[in-house]
């Protein structure tokens, strides 16, 4: 039986907040609100959701009106699959935004959802059902029902949306309106980096091959401090708010699609390395046509669900980008999160991607056990290459050009090349990488406007460039002093300009030296460079967690 506050005000504190203590991080995601509607004529409210703790658990609701007064309190028990619902009539007549607080067992931070109530003369409120939208395809897109957002402990907002099957019976779609996005942004709290994250979780229990979401073009063609995360059973994709140019995006809606894809056409050994692993496709549509968009300066983050077999190592899992001709390109920054069960990578374009497993080795690295794992891992990721199909030549020295190429590739750095060194010419295989490094301040040049690409790189040059690259990528600031180098007997040989970088990398464990020596002026070997780059990538991965 539903009760008004005046009947049960004395038990609100007991029912709503006497819950077992738990951190905010643990509380996140315990309740998913899937529907919140209000009839503008009858004032009847319907709220549905899922308790992630499962069936048979108490769920308590407290509704506060726009004036801050409690309008409604009740409690129910979650049924099969954790589902629950509340149906009630607003006690008061206050117009505006109502806030519903939800409490469940084993959580001390109530989750919230808001809904608007307006009378007939003001045009209705959110939750009345919404009007149909168009998704830019021959399929009729799912109706644009008002979206309900929950504020999560990290400041992001999340909406769980039931995606409806379209006429093709293979695509589950949903539409988000400009009003929905504005409401989400007003509720979200920016991170310390200034980013507001909006999460759309699309659900459908009919196992569709694809998921699609229609979004207002403005949310993807303006503010770099907005991040739109789309979660589906096929994968999760984070879309930066500045990924599209306004002139390309236009007005209205843009549609993002993620789904299963065919492996073929594919060349060489790729088919064997992929096997039965996931193959997905990502694309954008505008007015029914696929968009070709360069995302070089606003890359997207993609996560694909994948369960490792007992014989697979995380470092030998990679992601391949497949083009229409069947060529495969390895994406260097691929990681596997055992906790989430996700393969994660960054990319600067839409298209087909597949998870692959490759164990790469060389015949001549057996005498370098300290570098073997690094060489094999970086070779698998496509960051370094052998000098032949079977040899790596670990003792060979590394040129300045080759090192910059590896560094830019490993960190997936991009910049508009506007200026170039006098001794680096178009057509050189390292032209773009060196240009990017110059633009980002990673390299300063030698003897005026020259780079000396063919010169062998010294260990301290390698460290300085890496420190600058990590800063340019926004990954970490590498800072240190001569005091961090006292354990090395040859610390005095480190050039003044390199002390901060060498010391900072040493203090972070990225540079470990050779016993009591750091050998700053020695030329780096291919084995040393691989080990150094491997530690950099491990530091990058650790900083992202």
TrEMBL record:
Keyword Hydrolase: no
Domain SLH: residue ranges: 358-416, 417-480, 485-545
Signal sequence extent: 1-27
Compositionally biased residues, Gly residues: 122-136
Record's keyword terms, sorted: Signal
Region (Disordered): 118-142
Protein name: S-layer homology domain-containing protein
Organism listed in the record: Paenibacillus mangrovi
């Amino acid at each position: 039986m539903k009760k008004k506050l005046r009947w049960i005000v004395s038990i609100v504190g007991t029912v709503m907040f006497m819950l077992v203590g738990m951190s905010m991080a643990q509380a996140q995601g315990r309740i998913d609100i899937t529907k919140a509607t209000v009839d503008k004529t009858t004032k009847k409210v319907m709220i549905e959701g899922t308790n992630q703790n499962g069936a048979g658990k108490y769920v308590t609701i407290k509704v506060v009106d726009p004036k801050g007064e409690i309008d409604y309190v009740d409690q129910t028990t979650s049924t099969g699959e954790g589902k629950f619902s509340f149906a009630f009539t607003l006690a008061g007549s206050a117009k505006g935004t109502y806030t519903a607080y939800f409490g469940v067992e084993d959580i001390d931070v109530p989750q919230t959802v808001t809904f608007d109530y307006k009378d007939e003369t003001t045009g209705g409120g959110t939750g009345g059902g919404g009007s149909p939208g168009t998704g830019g395809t021959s399929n009729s897109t799912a109706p644009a029902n008002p979206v309900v957002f929950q504020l999560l402990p990290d400041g992001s907002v999340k909406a769980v949306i039931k995606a409806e099957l379209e006429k093709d019976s293979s695509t589950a779609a949903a539409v988000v309106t400009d009003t929905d996005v504005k409401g989400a942004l007003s509720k979200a709290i920016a991170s310390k980096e200034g980013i507001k994250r909006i999460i759309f979780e699309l659900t459908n229990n009919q196992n569709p091959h694809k998921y699609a979401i229609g979004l207002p073009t403005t949310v993807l063609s303006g503010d770099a401090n907005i991040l739109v995360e789309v979660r589906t059973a096929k994968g999760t994709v984070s879309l930066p708010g500045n990924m599209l140019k306004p002139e390309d995006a236009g007005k209205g809606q843009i549609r993002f699609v993620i789904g299963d894809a065919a492996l073929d056409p594919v060349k060489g050994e790729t088919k064997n390395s992929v096997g039965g692993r996931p193959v997905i496709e990502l694309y954008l549509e505008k007015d029914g046509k696929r968009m070709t968009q360069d995302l070089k300066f606003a890359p997207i983050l993609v996560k694909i669900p994948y369960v490792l077999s007992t014989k697979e190592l995380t470092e030998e899992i990679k992601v391949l980008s497949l083009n229409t001709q069947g060529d495969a390109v390895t994406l260097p920054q691929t990681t596997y999160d055992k906790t989430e069960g996700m393969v994660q990578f960054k990319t600067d374009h839409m298209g087909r991607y597949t998870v692959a497993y490759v164990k790469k080795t060389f015949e001549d690295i057996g005498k370098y056990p300290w570098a073997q794992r690094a060489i094999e891992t970086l070779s698998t990721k496509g960051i370094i290459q052998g000098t032949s199909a079977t040899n790596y030549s670990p003792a060979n020295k590394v040129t300045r050009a080759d090192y910059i190429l590896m560094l830019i590739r490993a960190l997936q750095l991009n910049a508009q090349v506007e200026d170039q060194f006098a001794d680096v010419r178009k057509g050189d295989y390292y032209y773009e990488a060196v240009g990017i490094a110059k633009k980002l301040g990673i390299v300063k040049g030698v003897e005026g406007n020259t780079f000396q690409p063919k010169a062998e790189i010294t260990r301290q040059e390698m460290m300085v460039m890496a420190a600058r690259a990590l800063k340019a990528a926004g990954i970490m600031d590498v800072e240190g002093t001569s005091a961090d180098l006292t354990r090395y007997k040859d610390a005095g040989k480190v050039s003044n300009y390199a002390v901060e970088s060498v010391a900072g990398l040493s203090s972070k464990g990225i540079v470990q030296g050779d016993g009591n020596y750091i050998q700053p002026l020695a030329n780096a070997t291919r084995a040393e460079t691989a080990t150094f780059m491997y530690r950099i990538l491990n530091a990058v991965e650790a900083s992202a967690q």
